[in-house]
Amino acid sequence: MSIADNLLKYKKELEGTAAKLVAVSKFHEASEVMEAYQAGQRVFGENLVQELVEKQAQLPDDIEWHIIGHLQTNKVKYIAPFINLIESVDSLKLLIEINKQALKNKRVIDCLLQVYIADEDTKFGLGYDELIEILRSEEYATLQNIRIVGLMGIATNTQSEKQIRDEFQELKVLFDGIKVTYFRKDDYFTELSMGMSADYKLAIDEGSTMVRIGSNIFGKRVIKHYKAE
C-alpha cells in the first residue's frame, strides 16, 4: 500500500472521533512527507531538531510541525521561528527557554506538558507532583510567550491492554483535573496527545485528541545518525 492509501485508512478510522492524526515522519525523506502532504495530511511529528529544520526548509509553509521527542534547551532556538506545537515539555527550565526564544521571534508557542505514565525507565516526562509544582510556580506565571494547550503521555510498551488502558485513563483523569483547576477559563486547553501505532485505538477510547502514527503510514524507517542531537 502507498503512503496515501495508509493515510486514507487512518483518516477513515478517526472519522467521528475526537482524535486528529499526527503523522510521525522522523527518519523519512522530505519527498515522503510531500507524498503525505499531497494526500491531504498537514500535521507532522518529528523527534530530532536537526532533521526537522532540514525538512521544514524544503516543504510547504502550511505544514503544522510538532516536536514529539525529548527536546534539549540548547536546540529550542532552531525551531522557535516556525514550530506549531512542542508536545514533549518535561521541565520548567525547558518552558522558560521556549518562552525566551518565542519572545525573540515575536511569537507565542503552544506546548504540551509531557507526563510520565509508563512503567519504564526509558521514557521522559513529569511526575504528577512535578507537573502541579510547575503550574503553581511564580516563574510559570511570568511566561507570556508560551501557551500550555494540554498534556502528552506515552504508555508502557507492553502486550497488556489492561495496563495500557489504565495508564491512558489515569492521564485523562489528570487532564480533566488540571483543566478544571488551572485552565477553567482557558478554552485553548483542549489537547490530550496519547496513542501510537500499537495502542492508538485504546487511546482514542480513553479520550485522546491526537494520535502519533509513523511507520504504519510511511513504511520502515532508515535510521539516520545526526551528530550530538
Query: What is the number of helices?
Result: 10
Strand content: 15-25%
**Whole-angstrom Rg:** 17 Å
* Main sheet characteristics: 8 strands, parallel, barrel
What CATH first level would be assigned?
Answer: Alpha Beta
Oligomer: single chain
Number of domains: 1
Total E-strand runs: 8
Explain this structure to me?
With 229 residues, this protein is α/β, with parallel strands linked by helices. It has a single domain (3-218), classed as TIM Barrel (Alpha-Beta Barrel). The chain is built from ten helices and eight strands. The chain has an eight-stranded parallel beta barrel with strand order 1-2-3-4-5-6-7-8, surrounded by four helices. The longest helix is centred in the C-terminal third of the chain and has 22 residues, at 161-182. The radius of gyration is 17 Å and the shape is globular. The two termini are 33 Å apart. The model has no long low-confidence stretch (mean pLDDT 95).
